[in-house]
Structures are given as structure tokens and as C-alpha cells.
Design brief:
mainly alpha, 149 residues, 0% strand, 5 helices
């Protein structure tokens, strides 16, 4: 067996060991944190639903942006997206709310719209903001199939 083949086999074995360790560590982390994460998500959705029942959809977005400023971690971002999604489902429609919001499949238009929306909100080049406004796109284009829009 050549030296090159031995080196490649050692690298491949090392990569497999790395994957096994990474998957095991991820599974242990999930097991230790699953309940807390699920409860946080359920709480965020309940808060969004309660907030949205007495407001218009534009107020949901304003509140989600306020929360975006107060959260800093990955789970805070996920909880905020869940809040906004639940809130938008319950809220009353604001006239013109979905005007100019591109469909998720319109990649270039979505990127431009996301950057413009976040910049207008003081969040230029902010990835959590860009991911948050995807909830607006989902809402608006889910609404396109119903009569509520």
C-alpha cells in the first residue's frame, strides 16, 4: 500500500471519528436542553398569539423588532421568530402590509427586500434581522392563498 493511500485512509478514519463524536455531543446537548427549548418555544408562540389578538400585523412586526434588540443568542432568535409567526396569524391585517413583499422563492428580490427592510429598521447587514423578516414573507404569501389579504 502506498504512502498516499495510507495517509488518505488515516484522514478518512479521523473524519469518521470526528463525525461520530460530533453527532454524539449534539445528541447529548439536545437531550440535556430539549425540554427547556420546547418550553421556550411554546411560551414564545403563546405570547405571540396573545399579543396578536388585539393588534394589527404591523404591531407584531414592531414588537418582534423590539425583542430582536433585547435577545442575543440563537435560541432568542428562534423564539422571536416563533413569536412573530404566531402573532401574525392572530393579528388583524394592516392595509398594504404585504405590498412589495416578495415570495420566498424569488431569491434576488427576497435578498434585496430583506436588506432594505432591515436597513430601514436600523439593522443593516444584520443576519438575525434578515431571518426574522422571512416570517413576514411566509405570512404574506400564505395569506395570498386566502381571502384575508
Amino acid at each position: 500500500m502506498s504512502k498516499t493511500v495510507k495517509v488518505l485512509l488515516i484522514l478518512a478514519a479521523g473524519f469518521v471519528v470526528f463525525l461520530v463524536v460530533a453527532v454524539g455531543a449534539g445528541a447529548m446537548w439536545w437531550k440535556a436542553n430539549k425540554v427547556r427549548l420546547m418550553e421556550g418555544g411554546s411560551k414564545a408562540m403563546a405570547e405571540g398569539k396573545a399579543f396578536g389578538t388585539s393588534r394589527q400585523d404591523a404591531s407584531c412586526v414592531d414588537e418582534a423588532f423590539r425583542r430582536l434588540d433585547s435577545g442575543s443568542g440563537f435560541t432568542d432568535e428562534i423564539h422571536n421568530r416563533l413569536f412573530l409567526s404566531a402573532c401574525l396569524k392572530e393579528a388583524q391585517p394592516t392595509p398594504g402590509f404585504c405590498e412589495g413583499v416578495p415570495a420566498m422563492g424569488e431569491i434576488m428580490s427576497s435578498v434585496k427586500w430583506s436588506l432594505t427592510t432591515c436597513t430601514r429598521r436600523g439593522k443593516a447587514n444584520d443576519q438575525p434581522c434578515s431571518r426574522l423578516v422571512q416570517e413576514i414573507q411566509k405570512h404574506c404569501h400564505a395569506e395570498a392563498t386566502s381571502s384575508r389579504r
